[in-house]
Batch of 2 targets.
Target 1
Amino acid sequence: MTLIYLLGLVLVAAGAYVVGRQKGVTFAMAGGASRMHSLPSYHGAYLAVSAIAPMLLWFILWLVLAHRVVEWAGMSALPADLAPADGLAYASRLREILLVADGVQTNEVAPGVRAAGETYALWRGLSEWALLIVGLGLALIGFAWGARQLEPQFRARNGVERFVKVLLIACSAVAVLTTVGIVFSVLFETLRFFAKYPWYDFLFGLQWSPQTAIRADQVGASGTFGAVPLFAGTTLIMLIAMSVAGPIGLFSAIYMAEYASPRVRGVVKPVLEVLAGVPTVVFGFFAALTVAPFIRSTGEALGLNVASESALAAGLVMGVMIIPFVSSLSDDVINAVPQSLRDGSYGMGATKSETIKKVVLPAALPGIVSAFMLAISRAVGETMIVVMAAGLAGNLTFNPLEAVTTVTVQIKTLLVGDQEFDSAKTLSAFALGFVLFFFTLVLNFIALRIVQRYREQYD
Amino acid sequence: MTEMTAVSGLGQRVDADEARARVRKRYRAEARFKAYGIGAIAFAALFLVVLLADIVTKALPAFTVTHLVIEAPVTAETVDPDGSRQAASLARGDYLKPLREVYQGFFPEVSGRAPRRELNGLLSSGAADELRAQVMADPSLIGKTVKTRALVSDDADLYYKGVVTDVVEEPGEAVATPSATSGEVVVTTSTPAFADDLAEIKAELSETARKRRFEVDRIRTLREGILADKPSAELALREAQGGGDATRITVAQNVLAKIDSDAQSLQAQMETLAGEAADFEARFKDSGGAEKLDEKLPSRLLAINGGIVKITSLAADRVEGVTLTPLKSQDAAQPNAWKLLTYETPETPAGSATSRSPGSRR
């Protein structure tokens, strides 16, 4: 039925458009095109919009309300002794009713349920017809309303543009509302976690051992959710990654923007971008199977005790992964620095590197800082590499040769597998997610502020 | 502006020595700066190349398998139990048997149930699939000798791909004389041909001992980490006993018992490893003639006179061992007519006994 409705909607729009355009053309013929406010096609579009806008609104309203009404009708048709007592019973009763209504199962059900199923089917049919009939009726009313307005002087174009604007606002509202929804759902789960576990222990506790028992007599029944080791591990890996990606990315960007000939640039830039295109899983097993053993054996040759899953391996590979982020963004901002600044510097007798260090980089600083911030938030949020190469043990250490764990790895570990959804263990993942979200939000905020503050200084 | 006049020092000549030196310094800085850029790009490109090369070289062997080409007699009794030549009957035939018989014929010296089972284990359980397909496609092959490819087992396949162990071949440098053709063999050489190997084994001993010590340290840290939780677990037990809640007492007791058993098993591992390390160190220090080779050291095989001897004891000019495949003769072998094969991965690699330490299950 919804398909027919949408088809009808298209037909109504097309029909209204043709009629409106025809009317516009007659206006033009009668009074001359120069005396009209809008083109005939806008008259058509205006009529189409005024016909389908109420149809669309009615459709959305129907989508939200209709199944509730139908469900309510089916449920209230149940005899009192079959009426569900709680949410679980409600869902299973509804399933039975649906089976009857769909004609899948008509035998072996209680007569009361069968009656309810039939009522449900009746109401469902009614609601679908209501959709079609009311929708078409609304389209007619809208069409008539629009058609009455049409005249040579009518501002049809403005009306259409107003409609498009509203449509665009509605689209962006969907995106914004989704983000808000995500934030709030994470926030509420986090609050539920903090109801089970004190927030100061979570934020400042030194031991991470999220072992809650499924049975009461299991070993490790008490979990401790002190997240400091995770924050330390995340910070450590992020620092290692940034100490690789920062200088290398920045120097590559400087070389590409200032020194490289167009030919070299044409080769190097795609190569760096390939690095960004490698899937993180591939980086992950490269880190775990090649880099980590290499670091371990090198460390042993030097007499160091290196864990086979080390923060160094994960950090190094992650650093390489985010080189393209730093380099291509910095490259863009360096290119955006006005040539006049460089020319001025050369005119004073500065060498190229002096110009870059003293003039170009300060001018490009806000962009470079925001590139770094983006790279950092990428490093903090990266999961696959650390899952594979950094380990799971929540060690509180800043030794890059030991196994550490990060916030993202723990979120993944907590949510993989069968867990009841309201246990502290599962909920702690939301708390971690919230912290992560908050951290990246702050980073983005800082980056934005820096860009805003320094942006127009040299333009 | 003010800054510039302050540094440049008006009135200084541009061709003064100091000025030239300063310009040279600035150009050096310029070159250095440019080199940093090239270095950074080179690093990124190198990493990409290494990454791709690593993935490609590790992936390629997965696309190949190793077969043994065997000419096996296909008899009606084994492959066609009903004698009907119908697909249903042919599908139930035993195709592995003829392959195994031919294959075992290559190694007549292998006898006894266990060694023969081990030998058969080198053929994949799907070794006969190709032969079966051949015969089912063309039943007239029954009664003939069919050339077919038998898939080797995964272990054997990995060995052929060189994943299992590195094999080093050294040609013999002296005249070598075996004492027998099968069983326990002593091979003596005219000059101390094995002196280098002896030194190598000594080095391996000391290296293995060092690795064992290393492992001991690691396990000690692990054990201390586990024992550090003991006081809090004891406290929890006392509290539980004070509270009188039966489940909590059991939980606390279980926690405590796990800590104790983990610590104990780690202690035992430490002692084993430390004992091995001490043993290796003693052998390293002992400068006596022969060195025993066991499964904890790389295996060394002697290929001589068409047979293979697995070395169990090695001295500078004399090795003892057992034959894996019998020698054809007891003649003295000339230099370069025999060789020493070293399988770098020991039969039981270091740490294999300790890789499943309880602490690693966190």
Target 2
Amino acid sequence: MNPRMMGATAARVLRQLRGDPRSIALILVVPAVLLTFVYYLFENETMPPGIPRTFDRVGLMMLAIFPFVVMFLVTSITMLRERTSGTLERLLTTPIHKADLLFGYALAFSMMAALQSLVATAVAYWVFGLDIKGNPGLVVLVAVLNSVLGVALGLLCSAFARTEFQAVQFMPVVVIPQILLCGLFVARDQMNSVLEAVSNVLPLSYSVDALQEIAGHSTSTAAMWADVLVMIGFVLAVLLLASPTLRRQTP
Amino acid sequence: MSHLALPHDNAPSAPSVPGVEVRGLSVRRAKATVLAGLNFSIPSGRITGLLGPSGSGKTTLMRAIVGVQRITSGTVRVMDKDAGDPELRRDVGYVTQAPSVYRDLSVEDNVRYFGAMHRRNRAQVREAIDAVGLTDLARGRTADLSGGQFSRVSLACALVSTPRLLILDEPTVGLDPVLRAELWERFARLAAGGTTLIISSHVMEEASHCDTLLLLRDGKLLAQLTPDELRSRGASDDLELAFLHLIRADIAAQGGAA
């Protein structure tokens, strides 16, 4: 690992993004707009006293799901371009280490994701009065971790796509099952045992668990940190799997 | 062997350590033989031209020397190390035929990024951009450039690392004559400074700028010779005609043998 090359890679990826203001606007604004939809969707519900609003539950989870989805897409397309344009092969003839490249990407996109979740979390709190017990800083932390997970999975999936069209098709394969099973629609302990077992091995489930811990407790709990650790483990494992897909030699 | 490779009686006199040493190099890809048992060595500090019809294996050979090509058999030694050795990544520059740069970055940002892999500073980045004549366009987006300018960005990204071995796949395609002449002067200066250059080309008149030529056909080494030797062996002062004569003689020889 060479921090200089990793930094140069992160700076380069951010410069590429800066050249595309429309994408930046979409990344920053779309989650806030979707949150607005969710808020008005449940505007007229009446809950017995003491039961949290649906928005407080669903809106919170969406804060973590947006960066995951967006960064998965952005990364898999960017990395696919890197593979097909020949720049990846060229980079791998230079002294750069694969880890510098992978972590450079993760660093750049997680900075973008931090901005995105700051905007979305601010809107959720100050515009729609999101009401949870825990610290909003922890919500942002989980959101950023989720984005890094999206980056890692995007890097890995880009190896299995030859065209951008194929890369986009990985979203229904990799992302949507995780959203269905993460506990957003049905609590994980109420799923049948097969689905629950599947959801146990999907990383997004742990971020939703962590958010529920944050929502329910005013201070950070050991269970939340355990979920965070599991997520970090997933990220490292996926990056480790992605590393051999960056080949220095091809037939 | 059946091919017409010349004995190496013409090896240039000066350098003792070969820049590139290839022994029995074969590459098969999807059952097709792309390179068939090549043997040659390339002196360092010289310009070696790689010539041959399209599909003759020029790019595969260059990739093998860079170390990005998986080879079937044989050895490729570059500056006394195996091709692709991690230590060589500092010393070998490779410019692919299709420009491999980031279209959505400026010229300067592209060169700076590849320069960062070799710890190059701002002045060295500027120098590489000047060398390919893109000084005035340095801040422009690469995607907005013309085809010839685009490929020069790719060249600048290799020049910035000041490699000891520079491998260029068709670097002058799409360039105007003035710029082409300037680039060849630059290549000559690099070689004079000790850089080994391997340059493939379709433009036969460019072969006259090279110290030695490798003629490839169908993955085999037809000959290794100087431009003058090519003129005499091909019985024409026009390098293109001389090359054609050699190729046709080879085809005829193979036809007769079959």
